[in-house]
């Protein structure tokens, strides 16, 4: 009898050990999946806004063809001296545990960005739930809360809509760029690189942006739109850069994947569009008389997209002439971007890091004064090589 | 010593898993900033020297573990004292690695579970493996060697596909010159993980073919050195030297960066598997060496009897050695390195080797 009982007891003990795995179990229905976090600051306190996914309504919307009753997301706001405090305090309103593993987007209000964003990233790094791959955007002329309280029609979850818009426009047009949290944190430690972030803006009437009415109309009254790039300097927003200038920044950063460059041809203004299919940028540094010079070399390859003037594309000489015009246009964009950044005294291109890598010894002297002394007067030589490979389905245009 | 035999291939795999163990996941030699991979490679080169010392000692006494031949070299009394110190060292390090392992799991995956539970589950598994003997541990290493390698390769390919590697982050090379690298080598990377191979002086005698010890040990050291350098180099190339040097587990952060085609992401589980497999073998080998050492020292026939009491001691020691993570790490980097790793991995083995050489030369002369 005695011999038989012991193995059974040990067996029972082992079964108990398996239960350790359930120590801090959390049921899915007890979690509040936070898809986006908005951060503002008012009177020295952080205001966190949480966009929480309402799973039932997201699934329902696709099944019932969009006519579901509830909203796909809910918004909660909470204040605290620190972000962790604000997050915990949110439990007063949310019935579920805030869960950050699916947070893909962090929105920072413009006011806070001007004040400085360095503080807000510590918790993001420290917390094991948070993902460093999350994107960060600035709410242009708005608070983060206002930006997060806009319902969107096609992609039901507004945060996803913003991220996908950002990805798409970066790929197709190239005036905006997605910035990951990790890149921001990394830039804080690099003396020769400042960070840029895309901003979003609410177009139209903001009054009923968070109402279901907003997505019932064909053209929503309030719409989210990617806007200028925010220039940061040591964690503080110092200026904006938009339109072609913003694209100039992306050219230098080698982030342009595809875009369209429109150029003048002879007397005709904005007459011809060039679709860039591939682009590659190289940035190198040289020291001359102890002063750094930066060389930016851009190579692009693409097709003719559209023309308003009569050009004979069968003639290679014309193509070469056109390529020259393209090069001038892209070069001008890049030079303008450099000019804007130099005026703001913020090395958003990472030229300093290029110098650091090539001349580590000399860099040590320049390091401290880089943004304020060296970068604004930096000699930047831009060289662009554009190639037009194909002209589409037609050679000459019917326009004569 | 138990009556067991392992093959050279098993020794090789066991040593590889042992070397990767916790070294793969902790911020190894990050004080060298972007040159960390160089610091690891240099550590490996000097590590080969240490391994050679252990190997030479083994060739003089191919059938004895360290705790026995230390008595032959410096006499029964001092030899026993020395053996006792080594046995305590092995058990202490196994407790340290166990604590490392528990802290890592606690920090990132099980924030609410008590440390005791995680350590206990791990230690019970280790105790079971050690109870079963070195042959079982060696066979398990054969099994896990390939799974760990697959995970490593998968992670490597994915991180490259995800486009997170930017080799420019490794530049400028030698920014602060060689002094910084050698400082890191001689305060950190030489001892952990390469010098820790001293524990294998307890395991070499089990080898079926003694002439293959050098080949297996050397290759394992070489391969794991290169692998570790690659892993840390990859961490820096993906995250930047600053984040790596501030991170508690750089490899985890690197794996979190992986994002391929919008669905291959959040592969933290790869990290978990690597951590648990590596942790198991590192704790296991140290603990086994400690247990065998005690049995050898006190001339016990069956070492199995020691497994449970010593295992429980190690478990409680792992909880008692530090009251928080910072203390634990600081102890590991400062006190343990200076007062344990340097004398026990380097000075004493070299001394023993010199004495053994002199003794053997005398013997040879007498023989003539």
UniProtKB/TrEMBL annotation, chain A:
<keyword id="KW-0309">Germination</keyword>
<dbReference type="InterPro" id="IPR057336">
    <property type="entry name" value="GerAC_N"/>
</dbReference>
<feature type="domain" description="Spore germination protein N-terminal">
    <location>
        <begin position="25"/>
        <end position="198"/>
    </location>
</feature>
<dbReference type="GO" id="GO:0009847">
    <property type="term" value="P:spore germination"/>
</dbReference>
<dbReference type="GO" id="GO:0016020">
    <property type="term" value="C:membrane"/>
</dbReference>
<feature type="domain" description="Spore germination GerAC-like C-terminal">
    <location>
        <begin position="228"/>
        <end position="392"/>
    </location>
</feature>
<keyword id="KW-0564">Palmitate</keyword>
<keyword id="KW-0732">Signal</keyword>
<dbReference type="InterPro" id="IPR038501">
    <property type="entry name" value="Spore_GerAC_C_sf"/>
</dbReference>
<protein>
    <submittedName>
        <fullName>Spore germination protein KC</fullName>
    </submittedName>
</protein>
<keyword id="KW-0449">Lipoprotein</keyword>
<dbReference type="InterPro" id="IPR008844">
    <property type="entry name" value="Spore_GerAC-like"/>
</dbReference>
<dbReference type="Pfam" id="PF05504">
    <property type="entry name" value="Spore_GerAC"/>
</dbReference>
<dbReference type="InterPro" id="IPR046953">
    <property type="entry name" value="Spore_GerAC-like_C"/>
</dbReference>
<dbReference type="Pfam" id="PF25198">
    <property type="entry name" value="Spore_GerAC_N"/>
</dbReference>
<comment type="similarity">
    <text>Belongs to the GerABKC lipoprotein family.</text>
</comment>
<keyword id="KW-0472">Membrane</keyword>
UniProtKB/TrEMBL annotation, chain B:
<keyword id="KW-0812">Transmembrane</keyword>
<keyword id="KW-1133">Transmembrane helix</keyword>
<dbReference type="GO" id="GO:0009847">
    <property type="term" value="P:spore germination"/>
</dbReference>
<feature type="transmembrane region" description="Helical">
    <location>
        <begin position="77"/>
        <end position="95"/>
    </location>
</feature>
<feature type="transmembrane region" description="Helical">
    <location>
        <begin position="12"/>
        <end position="30"/>
    </location>
</feature>
<comment type="similarity">
    <text>Belongs to the amino acid-polyamine-organocation (APC) superfamily. Spore germination protein (SGP) (TC 2.A.3.9) family.</text>
</comment>
<feature type="transmembrane region" description="Helical">
    <location>
        <begin position="143"/>
        <end position="161"/>
    </location>
</feature>
<feature type="transmembrane region" description="Helical">
    <location>
        <begin position="36"/>
        <end position="57"/>
    </location>
</feature>
<feature type="transmembrane region" description="Helical">
    <location>
        <begin position="306"/>
        <end position="326"/>
    </location>
</feature>
<feature type="transmembrane region" description="Helical">
    <location>
        <begin position="338"/>
        <end position="358"/>
    </location>
</feature>
<feature type="transmembrane region" description="Helical">
    <location>
        <begin position="269"/>
        <end position="294"/>
    </location>
</feature>
<feature type="transmembrane region" description="Helical">
    <location>
        <begin position="219"/>
        <end position="241"/>
    </location>
</feature>
<dbReference type="InterPro" id="IPR004761">
    <property type="entry name" value="Spore_GerAB"/>
</dbReference>
<dbReference type="Pfam" id="PF03845">
    <property type="entry name" value="Spore_permease"/>
</dbReference>
<feature type="transmembrane region" description="Helical">
    <location>
        <begin position="115"/>
        <end position="131"/>
    </location>
</feature>
<feature type="transmembrane region" description="Helical">
    <location>
        <begin position="181"/>
        <end position="207"/>
    </location>
</feature>
<keyword id="KW-0813">Transport</keyword>
<keyword id="KW-0472">Membrane</keyword>
<keyword id="KW-0309">Germination</keyword>
<protein>
    <submittedName>
        <fullName>Spore germination protein KB</fullName>
    </submittedName>
</protein>
<dbReference type="GO" id="GO:0016020">
    <property type="term" value="C:membrane"/>
</dbReference>
């Amino acid at each position: 009898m005695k011999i038989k009982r012991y193995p059974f007891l040990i067996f029972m003990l082992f079964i108990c050990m398996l239960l350790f795995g359930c120590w801090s179990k959390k049921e899915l229905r007890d979690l509040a999946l936070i898809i986006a976090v908005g951060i503002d600051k008012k009177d020295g306190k952080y205001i966190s806004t949480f966009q929480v996914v309402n799973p039932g309504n997201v699934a329902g919307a696709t099944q019932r063809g969009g006519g579901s009753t509830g909203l796909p997301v809910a918004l909660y706001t909470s204040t605290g001296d620190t972000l962790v405090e604000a997050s915990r305090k949110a439990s007063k309103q949310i019935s579920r545990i805030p869960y950050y593993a699916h947070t893909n987007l962090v929105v920072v209000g413009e006011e806070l960005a001007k004040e400085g964003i360095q503080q807000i990233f510590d918790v993001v790094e420290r917390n094991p739930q948070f993902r460093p791959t999350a994107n960060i955007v600035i709410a242009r002329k708005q608070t983060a809360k206002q930006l997060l309280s806009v319902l969107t029609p096609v992609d039901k979850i507004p945060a996803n809509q913003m991220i996908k818009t950002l990805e798409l426009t970066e790929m197709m047009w190239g005036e905006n760029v997605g910035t990951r949290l990790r890149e921001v944190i990394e830039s804080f430690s690099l003396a020769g690189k400042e960070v840029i972030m895309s901003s979003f803006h609410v177009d139209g009437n903001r009054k009923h942006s968070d109402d279901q009415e907003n997505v019932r109309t064909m053209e929503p009254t309030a719409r989210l739109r990617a806007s200028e790039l925010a220039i940061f300097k040591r964690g503080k927003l110092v200026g904006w850069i938009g339109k072609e200038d913003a694209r100039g920044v992306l050219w230098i950063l080698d982030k342009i994947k595809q875009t369209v460059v429109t150029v003048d041809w002879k007397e005709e203004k904005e007459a011809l569009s060039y679709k860039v299919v591939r682009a590659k940028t190289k940035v190198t540094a040289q020291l001359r008389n102890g002063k750094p010079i930066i060389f930016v070399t851009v190579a692009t390859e693409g097709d003719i997209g559209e023309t308003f003037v009569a050009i004979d594309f069968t003639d290679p000489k014309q193509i070469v002439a056109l390529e020259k015009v393209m090069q001038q246009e892209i070069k001008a964009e890049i030079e303008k971007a450099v000019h804007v950044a130099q005026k703001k005294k913020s090395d958003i291109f990472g030229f300093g890091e290029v110098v650091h890598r090539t001349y580590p010894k000399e860099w040590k002297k320049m390091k401290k004064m880089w943004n304020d002394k060296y970068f604004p007067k930096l000699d930047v030589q831009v060289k662009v090589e554009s190639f037009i490979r194909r002209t589409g389905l037609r050679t000459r245009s019917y326009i004569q | 010593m138990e009556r067991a035999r392992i093959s050279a291939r098993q020794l090789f795999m066991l040593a590889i898993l042992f070397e990767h163990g916790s070294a793969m996941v902790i911020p190894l030699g990050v004080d060298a900033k972007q040159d960390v991979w160089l610091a690891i490679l240099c550590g490996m080169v000097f590590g080969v020297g240490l391994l050679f010392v252990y190997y030479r000692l083994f060739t003089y006494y191919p059938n004895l573990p360290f705790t026995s031949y230390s008595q032959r070299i410096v006499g029964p009394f001092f030899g026993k004292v020395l053996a006792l110190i080594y046995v305590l060292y092995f058990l202490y390090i196994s407790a340290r690695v166990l604590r490392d392992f528990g802290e890592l799991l606690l920090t990132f995956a099980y924030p609410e579970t008590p440390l005791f539970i995680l350590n206990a589950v791990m230690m019970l598994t280790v105790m079971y493996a050690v109870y079963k003997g070195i042959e079982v541990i060696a066979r398990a290493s054969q099994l896990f060697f390939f799974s760990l390698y697959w995970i490593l390769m998968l992670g490597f390919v994915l991180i490259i596909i995800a486009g997170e590697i930017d080799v420019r982050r490794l530049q400028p090379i030698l920014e602060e010159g060689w002094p910084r690298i050698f400082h890191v080598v001689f305060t950190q990377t030489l001892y952990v993980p390469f010098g820790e191979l001293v524990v294998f002086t307890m395991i070499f005698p089990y080898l079926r073919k003694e002439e293959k010890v050098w080949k297996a040990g050397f290759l394992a050291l070489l391969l794991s050195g290169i692998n570790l350098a690659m892993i840390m180099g990859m961490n820096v190339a993906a995250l930047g030297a600053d984040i790596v040097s501030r991170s508690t587990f750089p490899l985890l952060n690197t794996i979190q960066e992986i994002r391929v085609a919008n669905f291959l992401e959040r592969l933290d589980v790869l990290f978990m598997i690597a951590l648990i497999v590596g942790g198991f073998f590192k704790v296991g080998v140290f603990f086994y060496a400690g247990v065998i050492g005690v049995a050898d020292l006190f001339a016990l026939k069956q070492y199995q009897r020691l497994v449970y009491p010593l295992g429980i001691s190690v478990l409680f020691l792992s909880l008692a050695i530090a009251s928080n993570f910072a203390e634990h790490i600081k102890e590991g980097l400062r006190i343990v390195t200076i007062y344990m790793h340097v004398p026990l991995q380097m000075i004493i083995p070299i001394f023993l080797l010199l004495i053994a050489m002199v003794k053997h030369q005398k013997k040879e002369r007498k023989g003539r």
